[in-house]
């Protein structure tokens, strides 16, 4: 094994090849691959379908890496040094044995796609700065053990794909409505009974704590911007986002949840009926 892997490393170095594929090579330890961590020039490393249990701290030496694929290994922990990969855009850790993520994991400044499908993660597995990953466009958390999705999910405003399939979710936070660029939401196979009204366009009262939405305001229609003013008094609700999961190009999957009867009835009619129902005053 080591001879063939050594050849891959040498060819990458000699020919300055940016992509290294070591898929399905029976590798149990990255340190056993001669010279792997000297390839500071590579931008892509595929180590899927191996037998890795850990990722060594030396991963930080691959300072130009943009794509890391560890799919289908036996990885139980990650080093804190992984967060030093300043150029990392795609990280696939699907089908491993992670039950926690390292401190500082949210410091990856360029990460766009994060796949954590098929692990043993829950809401307590995420480090405090996880939701600092504001460059994320796709987050895959399916087939884990989440019962609650932290409200800070609303900080990931560039998300276009959020997959939460087959967890133990009992509710969704209202902050999910702040994900106005979302094009795909997968929540099938959970324990959800209701949906937050904010999932439909994030319609909210604009106001101050303990004030019943009757304010002196100035409303700028052209900018969807609301600013407090002293000109006049009115009472209103304002849509401060435009989340829409009902279009032809949008994907909303929600089957296999124990929905309350009114929502279940709307699902029988179609997804658009569900969103019409949750935006109704009857539901709110």
Task: Provide keyphrases for this structure.
alpha/beta; nine-stranded parallel β-sheet; two-stranded antiparallel sheet
Q: Helices and strands in order, then pairings?
A:
Blueprint: H1 2-14, E1 19-21, E2 44-46, E3 67-69, E4 90-92, E5 113-115, E6 138-140, E7 161-163, E8 184-186, E9 203-204, E10 214-220, E11 225-235, E12 238-239, E13 251-253, H2 261-269, H3 271-278
Helix pairs in contact: 2-3
What does the overall shape look like? elongated
The arrangement of helices and strands along the chain is: HEEEEEEEEEEEEEHH
| DSSP strand tally | 13
Helix content: 10-25%
**What distance separates the N and C termini?**
62 Å
Helix-and-strand structural type: alpha/beta
**Rg (C-alpha, Å):** 23 Å
Biggest sheet details: 9 strands, parallel
What features would you describe in this structure?
The protein has 284 residues and is of the alpha/beta class. 11% of the residues lie in helices and 17% in strands. The protein has three helices and 13 strands, in the order αβββββββββββββαα. The strands form three sheets. Strands 1-2-3-4-5-6-7-8-13 form a nine-stranded parallel β-sheet. A hairpin with a 4-residue loop joins strand 10 and strand 11. Helix 2 crosses helix 3. It is elongated, with a radius of gyration of 23 Å. About 14% of the residues have low confidence.
Summarize this structure briefly.
With 284 residues, the protein is of the alpha/beta class.
